[in-house]
Design goal:
With about 55 residues, the chain is mostly beta strands. It has one helix and five strands.
Amino acid sequence: HSLYTERMYGIGKEYRVETGGKLIKGVIKGVTKEGHLILETPEETLTLPSATLWRVA
């Protein structure tokens, strides 16, 4: 990944995701060719539209 891509997508940063009414914390691992984010959580790896993510400060 270029630095620009990493900044744009927050790769390697910790995020909170709201899915099915519960919050999941995970780390962004990459981006699919559709532009969805790959989020790795302790339980599973999720592929999500970026709109569902909140940055963990």
